[in-house]
Amino acid sequence: MPESQLLSPRAPLCRYSGLRAPRPPHVGRSKVHTVLLPLVASAPDLPRFTLERVFTEWSLDPFLFVATVWAAGLYLWGVAVLRRRGDHWPIGRTLSFVVVGMGAFFFATSSGISAYDTTLLSVHMVQHMILAMVVPLALALGAPVTLALRTLPGTSTRGPRHWLLAVLHSKVVAVLSFPPVTLGLYIVSPWALYFSGWYDAALSSAYVHEMMHVHLVLVGSLFFWPLLGIDPVPGRVAWPFRLLMVFLTLPFHAFLGVTIMAQKELIGGAHYEALREGPMGAWLPSVADDQQLAGGILWAAGDVVGLIFFAVLFTQWVRDSMKEAAREDRRLDLLERRDTMRE
């Protein structure tokens, strides 16, 4: 075998040696299934996709795995600091951030969804919805900014707590959290992803692929965080405007999903067509059919999650209104008692 093939950076690692085996020319970029010790690589061709494969075809992306561990670990460290001080922190927030938020992020980037996300556009679309909607919503419900402000050392004028406050009050954060800007980013981002060269670049570059995952979570967080209003972050608006912003996103998901379903030009067509020329072509559906399914997933999942979030915000608004009414009743009762005592 020529030395140039053995040392090719695109070739997968052999299972028991340090040499590299050449990749068949028909196979596009695929996931490398890894464990910590020893480092091994699977064959570039995946078996037929089924629901069972979601829970059995696991792979670890080192960068995203480390980011997950650090984020969850820092949050749990903050909760431990509060408990050592004797302060209370709701268990629901911890479960929301660590279990639901970071757990969903790990599941979307390491399970069978991640293994097949460059093989089937429909599977990628499931991953997209988890990263763009489920993860940001759960992270926001965990109130990590509030936790950080209560546990970071320093004061409002010096130390890590001061640095966090400086970031929250900076002009950059003020602009990025401005409601029209967050709404625009949230709506435009998927259009830019699927109707530009961005998605093709993510299919051919592991780095771009990882950054796409991070981008989806960040844009979703910028949109959801101020709307929930749990953390003291800029961009929070009155309840009617929060509901309006969520309502405006509902037709966007439907329109984008229908557009993808009706699109004659295939998204990532060259990549997906190349996969069907190899062994996986025996079970892979046609690229057009898979794109139809992907558009339907985006349409349905976006509307379902959006309606659930709309209901959550409406419930929070009703509860806040009831609390405000109770406070007003107590204030009026106090004034009435004072007037009675003066008489």
TrEMBL record:
<keyword id="KW-0812">Transmembrane</keyword>
<feature type="transmembrane region" description="Helical">
    <location>
        <begin position="172"/>
        <end position="192"/>
    </location>
</feature>
<feature type="transmembrane region" description="Helical">
    <location>
        <begin position="242"/>
        <end position="262"/>
    </location>
</feature>
<keyword id="KW-1133">Transmembrane helix</keyword>
<feature type="transmembrane region" description="Helical">
    <location>
        <begin position="293"/>
        <end position="314"/>
    </location>
</feature>
<dbReference type="InterPro" id="IPR019108">
    <property type="entry name" value="Caa3_assmbl_CtaG-rel"/>
</dbReference>
<dbReference type="Pfam" id="PF09678">
    <property type="entry name" value="Caa3_CtaG"/>
</dbReference>
<feature type="transmembrane region" description="Helical">
    <location>
        <begin position="63"/>
        <end position="82"/>
    </location>
</feature>
<keyword id="KW-1003">Cell membrane</keyword>
<protein>
    <submittedName>
        <fullName>Cytochrome c oxidase assembly protein</fullName>
    </submittedName>
</protein>
<feature type="transmembrane region" description="Helical">
    <location>
        <begin position="128"/>
        <end position="152"/>
    </location>
</feature>
<feature type="transmembrane region" description="Helical">
    <location>
        <begin position="212"/>
        <end position="230"/>
    </location>
</feature>
<feature type="transmembrane region" description="Helical">
    <location>
        <begin position="94"/>
        <end position="116"/>
    </location>
</feature>
<keyword id="KW-0472">Membrane</keyword>
<dbReference type="GO" id="GO:0005886">
    <property type="term" value="C:plasma membrane"/>
</dbReference>
